[in-house]
Amino acid sequence: MNRLTRRAFCRIAGAGLGALSTTPGLWADSSKITAREIMARMSRNVGVKPFWPTADTIKIGDPDETVTGVTTTFMSTLDLLQRSQKAGNNFVISHEPTFWSSSDVVADLRDDPLYKLKVDFCETNRMVVMRYHDTWHARRPDGIFAGFNRWAGWQEYLYHEPGMERGIFYKLPPTTAGEIARHLTAKLNQRSVRLVGDPQTPVSRVGFAGHYISECMTIAPKVDLVIAGESREWECAEYMRDAVALGEKKAFIQLAHEGMEEAGMDECANWLRGFVPEVPVQFIASGDPFWIPT
């Protein structure tokens, strides 16, 4: 048998590989991934056992749609969906609802023109919108507050308050309530941060009260300043105003819901990039919906 020259061998091998690469179905397209496959990877990587009931489901779109790019965001507003589509991302992972209620109930919205427009936009552009709320909060550390701590630059100031099973606490270098309000306005890209109490109130201990008066009442005695997001105005703000009126040297900061939690979906994008290499993963802020006239 004649021995093949190296050049001849390379010609034959190259031709064979070329034929294999064009054989239909022989090699899977490793660049393609569906929303369902990304969701399965999320479930495997988050470290939380699946539970039910949960809000974490597809709200609109086909889970078997091929994903061109992923957007993580706090709220899937129409403006956010349009910006996501313009960026080339057809899979939106939203922390909060798409259709204006905590459970995305749409039974009473069928004839609403804005609902129809939002649905038509998603269907026309083959978009898939998933909510990712319960599981991301159940992650340890909580994905939302891991993002908040990073954006605020407060990771090193976290501490555990003895006897408190719930609540997030910080021991900061001595500052004032007004300085913290300005700091959060800048770091969280907010335009509607509001303050109850004297801006000159000395602050070194800060507590996060979530959304509710029960958390505010529990945390307030332990700290100089309470932060809450999206709390009803006749609850936390008024409780803290009464405390100040009674002579307590305390203050309260009210954030928009986005201000408290948007950074957590930037955290989600960073996390997803670790196991979804096939497509771009981008955090896009839905943004503070409020603004305060000067």
Which properties best describe this structure?
11 helices; about 290 residues; Udp-n-acetylmuramoylalanyl-d-glutamate--2,6- Diaminopimelate Ligase, Chain: A, domain 1; 11 strands; single chain; six-stranded mixed sheet; alpha/beta; five-stranded mixed sheet
What does this structure look like?
With 294 residues, the protein is α/β, with parallel strands linked by helices. It folds into two domains: 35-140 and 262-283, 3-Layer(aba) Sandwich (Udp-n-acetylmuramoylalanyl-d-glutamate--2,6- Diaminopimelate Ligase, Chain: A, domain 1); 156-257, Udp-n-acetylmuramoylalanyl-d-glutamate--2,6- Diaminopimelate Ligase, Chain: A, domain 1 (3-Layer(aba) Sandwich). The protein contains eleven helices and eleven strands. The protein has helices at residues 6-21, 35-45, 78-86, 113-124, 134-138, 143-152, 177-187, 213-219, 236-245, 257-261, 263-272; strands at 58-60, 70-73, 91-94, 128-131, 158-159, 168-176, 194-196, 202-208, 225-229, 251-255, 281-283. The chain has a six-stranded mixed sheet with strand order 5-6-8-9-10-7. Strands 1-4-3-2-11 form a five-stranded mixed sheet, sandwiched between helices. Helix 6 (143-152) crosses helix 11. The longest helix has 16 residues, at 6-21. The radius of gyration is 25 Å and the shape is globular.
Itemize the secondary structure elements and their pairings.
Blueprint: H1 6-21, H2 35-45, E1 58-60, E2 70-73, H3 78-86, E3 91-94, H4 113-124, E4 128-131, H5 134-138, H6 143-152, E5 158-159, E6 168-176, H7 177-187, E7 194-196, E8 202-208, H8 213-219, E9 225-229, H9 236-245, E10 251-255, H10 257-261, H11 263-272, E11 281-283
Parallel strand pairs: 2-3, 2-11, 3-4, 8-9, 9-10
Antiparallel strand pairs: 1-4, 5-6, 6-8, 7-10
